[in-house]
């Protein structure tokens, strides 16, 4: 009987040992994920000071090593160190609970050595070598074996591991959410340098009556309604970004004097925008700046989006902070989605009743080719010429719209190809004939409760221009420079317009360095205001 009982206990022990190793493995994986998340966040925090010290002649340099890839590589010493460190942390907790304080102290000491080595590798951009890692790996392995040899109570160990795995998962999720919120806040913020520029320009507008007189003189220029010229419209509250769009367009045009730019901004930035474009020459192009607050016809009785702007629910959703980040993505609460400037693109024929064709440009684009060729394209009776984005499956209608609602599913194809705003050629004659603005009003009213789509201008655009969009060659409009680090250089070079859609705008510190120079080249860095306002 004893022999039979012993034979029975042995497989049970093996099963317990198996499960404790499974739990320890899960603990290692969770710890590794948290380490990578925290490393990415810390790397974002330290990147600017490191570069700053290098610029000042210091000795800190950053290599080309991608430490995230290094820590995830199965063959790297960094991966071995991180896994052993995570396992050791688990045994520190267990050792303390079993009053093995000396073992816990030894493990903690080796964990600190391991952390120092990994931190140095992340800072210097150099991989951990065998010589650096060997002694730590050996000593940690010995201590882990010693901890395993103490035969802690299996049930207690399993429960301890479960609780700590759950705690690690919660910390990892919290770190991811926090990183998302911080990224969104950085994207929404106005840099100090741009705020400084606005103040200087607004001061000029108020102190120099000659600028206001010049503005009144240009307001009635016949060029603003001449359909023999090439008309572009930009709706923005960002002076420098708008300047880059205009400057890049005229710099790459064969005949810049035949270009007319129609800019609409808000009341806060109107004086600064006027001051900038009246004080600087853009190769003879005509530039008009208007204040959206003077569009008295655009009111709550006419426009559903204005009515929604005034509702208490909308204001609480967009301006109420990030308290419910687990329910709503932070990027979906960006106030720009409710901005009237953002929705002004649906009123272009009413703002410019005499015009027949216009190119719409977002303020986060850079023009690299002559865009006047767009005006000679045959749109085959369509209203909107745009680049389609359904090369990836997630850019089809079903990803933007709620097809569980019969009002959507009965009228639209879920597999229809999406397209992009940012660079569009609009036939305003065809627009007025199809009454696209009325379509837009209809869909905005239907979505008053937010059940057809979540936020933004693209979903109502897809509905309003359905069956009225002419696909353009992909090279007219290349997107993703505000979030995608791996766009092919050949595609960027061949593009007529590059678009920094995403949170990493080129005027922010979080911009992608690889693409930022393409935007910077159209800024006159010698301008005294830009020099005065440059970050120290």
In words, what does this structure look like?
- Pathway: Glycan metabolism; pectin biosynthesis.
- It comes from Acacia crassicarpa (northern wattle).
- Its main location: Golgi.
- The chain is an alpha/beta fold.
- The chain contains 22 helices and 9 strands.
- The strands form 2 sheets. A 7-stranded mixed beta sheet has the order 3-2-1-4-7-6-8. It has a two-stranded antiparallel sheet with strand order 5-9.
- Helix 9 links the parallel strand 1 (230-235) and strand 2.
- Helix 1 packs parallel to helix 6, helix 3 packs parallel to helix 5 and helix 7 (192-207) packs across helix 10 (270-279).
- The longest helix is centred in the first third of the chain and has 54 residues, at 2-55.
- The protein is elongated, with a radius of gyration of 30 Å.
């Amino acid at each position: 009987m004893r022999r039979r009982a012993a034979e029975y206990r042995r497989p049970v022990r093996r099963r317990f040992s198996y499960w404790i190793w499974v739990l320890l493995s899960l603990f290692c994986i969770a710890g590794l994920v948290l380490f990578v998340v925290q490393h990415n966040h810390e790397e974002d925090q330290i990147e600017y000071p490191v570069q700053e010290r290098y610029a000042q002649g210091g000795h800190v340099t950053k290599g080309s090593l991608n430490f995230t890839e290094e820590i995830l590589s199965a063959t790297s010493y960094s991966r071995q160190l991180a896994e052993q460190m995570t396992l050791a942390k688990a045994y520190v907790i267990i050792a303390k609970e079993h009053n093995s304080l000396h073992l816990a102290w030894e493990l903690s000491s080796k964990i600190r050595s391991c952390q120092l080595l990994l931190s140095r590798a992340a800072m210097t951009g150099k991989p951990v070598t065998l010589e650096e890692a060997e002694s730590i790996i050996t000593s940690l392995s010995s201590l882990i074996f010693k901890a395993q040899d103490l035969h802690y109570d299996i049930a207690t160990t399993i429960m301890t591991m479960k609780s700590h795995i759950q705690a690690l998962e919660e910390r990892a999720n919290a770190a991811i959410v926090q990183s998302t919120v911080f990224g969104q806040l950085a994207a929404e913020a106005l840099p100090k340098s741009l705020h400084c520029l606005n103040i200087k320009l607004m001061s000029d507008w108020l102190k120099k009556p000659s600028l206001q007189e010049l503005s009144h003189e240009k307001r009635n220029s016949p060029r603003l309604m001449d359909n023999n010229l090439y008309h572009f419209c930009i709706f923005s509250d960002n002076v420098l970004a708008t300047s880059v769009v205009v400057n890049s367009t005229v710099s790459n045009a064969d005949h810049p004097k035949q270009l007319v730019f129609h800019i609409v901004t808000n009341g806060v930035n109107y004086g600064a925008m006027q001051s900038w474009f009246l004080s600087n020459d853009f190769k003879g192009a005509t530039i008009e700046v208007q204040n959206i607050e003077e569009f008295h016809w655009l009111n709550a009785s006419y426009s559903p989006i204005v009515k929604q702007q005034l509702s208490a629910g909308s204001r609480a959703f967009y301006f109420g902070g990030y308290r419910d980040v687990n329910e709503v993505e932070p990027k979906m609460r960006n106030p720009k989605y409710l901005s009237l400037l953002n929705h002004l693109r649906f009123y272009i024929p009413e703002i410019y009743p005499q015009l027949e064709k216009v190119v719409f440009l977002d303020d986060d684009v850079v023009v690299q080719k002559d865009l006047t060729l767009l005006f000679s394209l045959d749109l085959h009776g369509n209203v909107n010429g745009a680049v389609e984005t359904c090369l990836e499956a997630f850019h089809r209608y079903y990803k933007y719209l709620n097809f569980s609602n019969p009002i959507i599913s009965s009228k639209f194809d879920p597999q229809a190809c999406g397209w992009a705003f940012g660079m569009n050629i609009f036939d305003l004659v065809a627009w007025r004939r199809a009454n696209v603005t009325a379509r837009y009003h209809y869909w905005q009213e239907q979505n008053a409760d937010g059940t057809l789509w979540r936020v933004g201008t693209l979903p109502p655009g897809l509905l309003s221009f359905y069956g009225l969009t002419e696909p353009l060659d992909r090279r007219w409009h290349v997107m993703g420079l505000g979030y995608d680090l791996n766009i092919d250089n050949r595609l960027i070079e061949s593009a007529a317009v590059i678009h920094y859609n995403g949170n990493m705008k080129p005027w922010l510190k979080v911009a992608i360095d690889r693409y930022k120079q393409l935007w910077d080249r159209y800024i006159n860095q010698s301008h005294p205001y830009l020099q005065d306002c440059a970050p120290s």
